[in-house]
Amino acid sequence: MQRAWRLLAVPAALTLLGLPAHSQEAISAKSGLIHYVDGRVLLDGQPVEPKFGRFPQMKEGSLLRTQAGRAELLLSPGVFLRMGENGELRLVSDRLSDTRLELLSGAILIECAEMIKGNALTVTFRDAAIAIRQDGLYQIDAETAELKVYDGEAAVESGAQALRIKRGKALALEGTLAMRKFDTRSGDALYRWGKRRAEYIALANLSSAKSLYDSGARLRASAWYWNPYFGMFTYIPYRGILSSPFGWRYYSPREVYVIYAPPRRAAVNAWDSTPRHNADLGYATIAPTPAGRSGTMAASPAPTTASGAPSAPIPRESGSGGGRSR
Q1: Contact 241, 250 (CB under 8 A)
Q2: In 3D, which of 51, 50, 46 has the Cα closest to residue 67?
Q3: What whole-number distance in Å separates Cα of residue 315 and Cα of residue 294?
Q4: According to the model, what pLDDT value does residue 18 have?
Q5: CA angle 16, 95, 38 (to 5 degrees)
Q6: CATH number 3.40.309.10 given to 33-186
Q7: SS3 sequence, the chain?
Q8: Phi-psi region at 221: left, alpha or beta (left = phi > 0; alpha = psi -120 to 50)
Q9: With bands split at pLDDT 50, 70 and 90, how would you rate the model's confidence at 13?
Q10: pLDDT, tens digit, for every residue of 158-194?
Q11: Domain boundary assignment for the chain
C-alpha cells in the first residue's frame, strides 16, 4: 500500500518535503508558495484558485494582490508571511538563502518559528529595508508606514539611518526613523487571523511528525511537510521542540513521542533504573503548552464515535488552499 506521506528528494539545504501521487507532484525549493487564500486574491492579475494539494508558486517579479481577501505564503522552512485585505506584495528574490520582498500597500505579518542559519529575509517598503534574521513576529503596515516587532529583532536601514528594533517597539518608516513602545499583548484582525492559522499548522505538525517517526525517515534539516489529512503543509523542525511566537509548539519526529507515548513513572528504587508506565496517571499528566489549550479544542466537547470514544476535533475553515479558517 502506498504510504499517505511520501518524501521528495531535494537538496538538504533546501529541504522541502513532497506530496502523495494524487496531489501536486513537486513544489519548487523556493520562497513564495501561496499556501492559503481566503476571499479574492490575484496573482499577476489572475484570480488565485488553489485546488486540494495544488498550490501556486510565485515567480521573481510576481505581484500578489489581495482585494476582499487574505493570503498566506511559505518562505523558508519555519517562516510564514500572511497578508491582510487590500494589499500588494512583490516577490523580488525567491531564493531561500536570500528572500526579498517589496510591500507596496496593505499590511503583512511575518511569523518566524525558525530562521535557519544561512537564510535571510528582507522586506523593502519605500526607502526602508527591513532585514529579519531572528525568530520572532513582525508586522509591517503600509497605511501607517510602521514596523511593529511583537517578538525578535529587525535591522532597518533608510538612507543614512540604521536602527535595530527589538520586542515591544514600533518604528515609523517615513522621514526620521522614530521608535515608540506598544502593547505586544494586543493585535488587530490580521494578528488574530495569523494566530489562528499558526494554530492549525501546529496541529497538523503533530500527526506529520509522528508519521515521519513511524516511517523511519530521518530529516537532514528543518522542512515543510505535506499533511493530506489537514490538506496543508506543516513545518517540521530538524530537532527539538520549537514554539511559534504565538505559543503553539512544533515537534521534531524524535520529540513528538512525548505527546503519543504513555507517561512514565520514576524507578522503584536507586538500584532499579527502568522507567515504568503508571496507568493511574493517564495522559492528563502531560503539561499543556505555554499558550494553554487549543481554542479549537476548548470551544466544545470532542465528538464521539459510535463506540463512545472521543474523536479528534477538526478545525473548520472557509478559505482555499492549505487548511481551513474560521
Answers
A1: yes
A2: 46
A3: 10
A4: 40
A5: 65
A6: no
A7: CCCCCCCCCCCCCCCECCCCCCCCCCCCCCCCEEEEEEEEEEECCEECCCECCECCECCCCCEEEEEEEEEEEECCCCEEEEECCCEEEEEEEEECCEEEEEEEECEEEEEECCCCCCCCEEEEECCEEEEECCCEEEEEECCCCEEEEEECEEEEEECCEEEEEECCEEEECCCCCCEEECCCCCCCHHHHHHHHHHHHHHHHHHHHHHHHHHHCCCCCCCEEEEECCCCEEEEECCCCEEECCCCCEEECCCCCHHHHCCCEECCCECCECCCEECCCCCHHHCCCCCCCCCHHHHCCCCCECCCCCECCCCCCCCCEECCCCC
A8: beta
A9: very low
A10: 988 999 999 999 999 988 888 999 999 889 999 999 9
A11: 33-186, 190-317
Beta-carbon count within 10 A of 254 CB: 15
Pairwise CA distance, residues 179 & 171, whole Å: 4
Torsion of CA 319, 321, 323, 326, to 10 degrees: -10
Confidence of residue 138 (pLDDT cuts 50, 70, 90): very high
Q: How far apart are CA 124 and CA 103, in angstroms?
A: 6
| Average pLDDT of span 85-114 | 97
Q: Which residue has the higher pLDDT, 202 or 288?
A: 202
More confident of the two residues 262 and 123: 123
Q: C-alpha dihedral over 81, 233, 150, 253, to 10 degrees?
A: -150
C-beta of residue 91 within 8 angstroms of C-beta of residue 101: yes
Average of per-residue pLDDT across 91-105: 97
Q: Which three cell numbers stand for residue 12?
A: 538538504
Task: Of 211, 299, 220, give the one whose Cα is nearest residue 251.
Answer: 211
- Contact of 96 with 76, CB cutoff 8 Å: yes
pLDDT at 325: 46
